[in-house]
Design brief:
This protein is an alpha/beta fold and about 450 residues long. The chain has helices at about 25-40, 45-60, 65-75, 80-100, 140-155, 165-180, 195-200, 215-225, 250-255, 280-290, 310-325, 355-360, 375-385, 400-405, 440-445, and strands at about 5-10, 15-20, 105-110, 120-125, 130-135, 155-160, 185-190, 210, 230-235, 240, 270-275, 330-335, 340, 340-345, 345-350, 365-370, 385-390, 390-395, 410-415, 430, 435, 450-455. The chain is built from 15 helices and 22 strands. α9 links the parallel β10 (about 240) and β11.
């Protein structure tokens, strides 16, 4: 008999539901079904997959409000934030359908190098097989569609493993995928317990693993996966840089929206704020003043900007890191207040470079400020991190942005925006402990495919 787990609302503590993990027999049954789904996909033309994805986008739009309410109930994300997520998920689904029609190869002339061979190589992209898509709690629909959409467009069958916290949301998404026309032998949802996950990851009929989450889980996946294709989108300790010529108002808005929204639980949240000493006081005062006006509380209320973090353990960790920074000399400019699973927006300055808030990824609404005097000084400060996901810089000087782009260990640098910038068709991913491979619909399709060459 499989083990049971319970899901509660992070804000109210009310029980949402009791569920059972899939046991090893159920997992084996699903893998066998998905293996037949590879043949189903092989018989499905690209234009048919595109039409299914377009229909799915329509169904997501029709059911957007119900899904948004489910997201808010399960994760504590504010309802306004959940609605934005649904808009992005619909865009990701549409983009997947469009890219399904654009998967193309190339023809190569063998005579480019001696000796002459008089051959032509026809190179095509082909699906890997069954892809295991593992998603986190914080964006249960959008991140799912950034995996399911490209995997389906590429012609794979898909085992969808959402975070247990998102069971109801993921179940509804799966039902809509089937309603849109994804065959049940092509897409299956499965939530095993931790001990069964290692066996699932290692299973010979799982060809690839597309995972978004933390580095500890990614390490376990890599250990168990063997020679499987891995696409790992992991954490970040993302810098936001404000130069003297930067738009202070724009930088304040970016800092607030990209750190305090989703209660700071984003891999691309602005987690370290570096402000040039010439504008440090101006930026700090404007940031504190604007943040003080944010509405904190019930995520179901239309005006709430900051709701709870996902659970008590997460709240404990965020609060502990704030207290550690204060013990090491940090000044509390705003916040450092907790009610249940809610951490109030917290801004600190004089934060030690070696404290956890500056070194580790912190999933919560806390913002450490640090002044600097030159961009040359910034590079080692930012690069001295295990992570390298995204960054943002506010400046009117393209030379400064280009210098930082070349010198910083990041997957993306956004000029006059924060590290939280993302759009569905741009490549997304980092370096070092921030992951392996790239998402973004076109790029994810390539990651979940392999090249096959015919020589004629």
């Amino acid at each position: 008999m499989s083990l049971q787990y319970s899901i509660s609302n992070p804000y109210t503590g009310e029980l949402i539901g009791d569920y059972r993990y899939a046991n090893s027999d159920k997992i084996s049954e699903i893998i066998a079904i998905l293996k037949t789904g590879q043949l189903t996909q092989k018989k499905t033309a690209a234009h048919e997959r595109a039409d299914i994805l377009r229909k799915l986008a329509g169904l997501l739009e029709e059911n957007a409000e119900e899904l948004a309410q489910l997201i808010t109930s399960e994760t504590g994300k504010t309802i306004s934030d959940s609605r934005v997520e649904m808009t992005r998920a619909i865009n990701a689904t549409l983009a997947s359908g469009e890219e399904a029609r654009q998967i193309s190869g190339e023809a190569l002339d063998s005579d480019c190098y001696a000796p002459t061979r008089n051959k032509i190589g026809i190179v095509m992209w082909r699906p890997l097989g069954t892809v295991l898509c593992i998603t986190p709690f914080n964006f249960p629909i959008n991140i799912a569609m950034h995996k399911i959409g490209p995997a389906f467009a590429a012609g794979n069958s898909i085992m969808f493993k959402p975070g247990p916290q998102n069971t109801a949301t993921a179940t509804m998404l799966t039902q809509l995928c089937h309603e849109a026309g994804m065959p049940k032998d092509v897409l299956h949802m499965c939530i095993p317990d931790v001990p069964d996950m290692a066996a699932l990851i290692a299973h010979k009929d799982i060809a690839a693993i597309n995972f978004t989450g933390g580095t500890a889980a990614a390490d376990s996946i890599a250990m168990a996966a063997g020679y499987k294709k891995l696409l790992l989108e992991l954490g970040g300790n993302d810098p936001l840089i404000i130069m003297p010529d930067g738009d202070i108002k724009g930088a304040v808005n970016a800092a607030i929206n990209q750190r305090f929204a989703t209660a700071g639980q984003r891999c691309t949240a602005a987690k370290r704020i570096f402000v040039h000493q010439d504008v440090y006081g101006e930026f700090k005062d404007a940031l504190v003043s604007a943040s003080r006006k944010l509405i904190v509380g019930d995520p179901r209320d239309e005006d709430t900007f900051v709701g709870p973090v996902i659970n008590t353990r997460a709240a404990d960790e965020v609060k502990q890191r704030i207290e550690q920074a204060v013990e090491q000399g940090a000044n509390v400019l705003l916040g450092n207040k907790r009610e249940g699973n809610i951490i109030y927006p917290t801004i600190l300055d004089n934060v030690a470079d070696n404290c956890d808030l500056m070194v580790e990824e912190t999933f919560g609404p806390v913002m450490p400020l640090r002044s600097f005097s030159s961009i040359e000084e910034l590079v080692p400060l930012i690069n001295n991190s295990a992570y390298g996901l995204q960054g943002g810089v506010f400046t009117q000087n393209f030379s400064v942005a280009k210098f930082l782009f070349e010198e910083l260990d990041l997957g993306t640098l956004a000029m006059n925006d924060g590290p939280g910038f993302r759009t569905e068709h741009f490549p997304f991913g980092g370096v070092k402990a921030s992951g392996v491979g790239r998402e973004g619909i076109k790029y994810a399709i390539r990651e979940m495919s392999f090249t096959k060459a015919l020589v004629i």
